[in-house]
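Assess the record.
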Amino acid sequence: MSRTFTPKVVTGNALVEGDAVWLTEDDRWSRHMSEAELIEDEAHAQLRLLFAQSQPGQVVGAYLAEARAGRSGPEPVHFREAFRTRGPSNYPHGKQADSATNF
């Protein structure tokens, strides 16, 4: 018996800066998960992942991450993805300084 597909977002890390990024519906890479395309179809998710992996000059380590619809866009399901939305853990500025993104 196959598992039911759960909604996903495409994520990876920006090649130069290393920041976590998410693929938007209009093929941009955003540093905000809330702007990501929430994908609810498994075949479409695989196509979007292939698209992401075809951009080695922009993004590395692209993968599908579980997500759910939130008030402002996709939200993380797992701790790892919630942690990634906050940015590097060794900087007291940027995403971590913005209390609105702390989970």
User: Anything to note?
Assistant: Confidence is low (pLDDT under 50) at residues 99-103. The two ends are 35 Å apart (CA to CA). The first strand starts at residue 8 and ends at 14. The longest helix spans residues 42-53.
